[in-house]
């Protein structure tokens, strides 16, 4: 199966190139769910707005839902799934549930005639609550609409526990594609130019990416892995030391935005 007929659905601007560079050129459409931050006061908000208005690929469409501020609100040591994505014991986040309902309605219309959809995996790559939310919304739509759903194979130390419980939902025999590093670097530089790149600046993309078909009836919340699957493992320490917390208060905004989603600050 080739990806020319697939629609890619990602949570945030820059997810499309971080986890899907190998197929970004192939997919016929790309839907990016979230735009502004929960408060619209993050250092990257203005730049992201510019990036969404001037994105160089016309097939990428931004739905511009407001982010829910759910990042790091779940317990990744004991992750628990919910209909809206993950349970959030660390703080209340009512917009997280509201976004799930709105995404369900928006994407039902966008994908009603589609046969193949590609999105985040059940554990949210490195461990992102809104990535998991998008996956769970799409698994519900998969059952209603009937499209084939594929997910990427990125995982980190933080998301490994959820992965070990949910990888059973993926079929074997992945599709493997060579990453497009030239495109990845070009789009990363565009995000950096607009001061809204949210990942490591010196991140090195792997040589290949794997994509797995989600099994019929799978929700991603049962225990057990029936098959051994190759993954792109992100090695990084997501725990913040007291020193990092102190230093984070003095870092320039342009530095913090590049470190935010990987748990530096």
**Contiguous runs where pLDDT drops below 50 for at least 5 residues:** 240-265
Strand order of the largest sheet: 3-2-1-6-7-10-9
CATH architecture: 3-Layer(aba) Sandwich
CATH topology: Rossmann fold
Q: What distance separates the N and C termini?
A: 41 Å
Total count of helical runs of at least 4 residues: 8
Q: How many domains make up the coordinates?
A: 1
- Protein structure class: alpha/beta
Q: What's the pLDDT, averaged over the residues?
A: 88
* Spatial shape: globular
- Please give the share of residues in helix: 25-40%
**What is the number of beta strands?**
11
Rg from Cα: 17 Å
From N to C, what is the helix and strand string?
EHEHEEEHEHEEHEHEEHH
Strand content: 15-25%
**Overall CATH class:** Alpha Beta
Main beta sheet, described? 7 strands, mixed
Could you give a short description of this structure?
The protein is an alpha/beta fold and 265 residues long.
Describe the structure.
It is a single chain. The protein has a single domain (6-238), classed as 3-Layer(aba) Sandwich (Rossmann fold). The protein contains eight helices and eleven strands. It has helices at 15-18, 45-53, 94-110, 129-145, 160-166, 181-193, 242-248, 253-259, and strands at residues 6-10, 29-34, 60-65, 81-82, 85-86, 116-119, 148-152, 154-156, 175-178, 208-213, 232-234. A hairpin with a 2-residue loop joins strand 4 (81-82) and strand 5 (85-86). Helix 3 (94-110) runs parallel beside helix 4. The radius of gyration is 17 Å and the shape is globular.
């Amino acid at each position: 199966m080739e990806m020319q007929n697939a629609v890619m659905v990602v949570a945030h601007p820059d997810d499309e190139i971080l986890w899907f560079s190998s197929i970004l050129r192939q997919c016929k459409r790309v839907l990016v769910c979230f735009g502004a931050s929960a408060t619209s006061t993050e250092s990257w908000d203005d730049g992201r707005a510019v990036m969404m208005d001037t994105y160089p690929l016309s097939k990428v469409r931004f739905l511009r839902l407001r982010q829910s501020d759910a990042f790091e609100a779940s317990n990744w040591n004991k992750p628990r799934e919910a209909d809206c994505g993950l349970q959030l014991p660390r703080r209340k986040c009512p917009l997280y549930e509201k976004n799930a309902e709105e995404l369900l309605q928006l994407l039902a219309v966008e994908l009603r005639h589609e046969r193949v959809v590609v999105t985040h995996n059940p554990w949210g790559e490195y461990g992102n609550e809104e990535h998991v939310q998008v996956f769970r919304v799409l698994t519900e739509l998969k059952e209603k609409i009937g499209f084939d759903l594929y997910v990427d194979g990125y995982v980190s130390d933080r998301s490994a526990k959820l992965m070990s419980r949910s990888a059973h939902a993926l079929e074997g025999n992945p599709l493997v594609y060579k990453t497009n590093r030239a495109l990845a670097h070009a789009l990363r530089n565009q995000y950096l130019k607009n001061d809204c790149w949210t990942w490591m600046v010196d991140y090195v993309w792997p040589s290949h990416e794997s994509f797995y078909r989600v099994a019929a009836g799978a929700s991603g919340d049962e225990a057990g892995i029936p098959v051994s699957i190759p993954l792109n493992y992100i090695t990084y320490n997501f725990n913040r030391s007291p020193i990092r917390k102190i230093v984070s208060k003095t870092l320039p905004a342009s530095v913090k935005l590049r470190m935010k989603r990987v748990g530096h600050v």
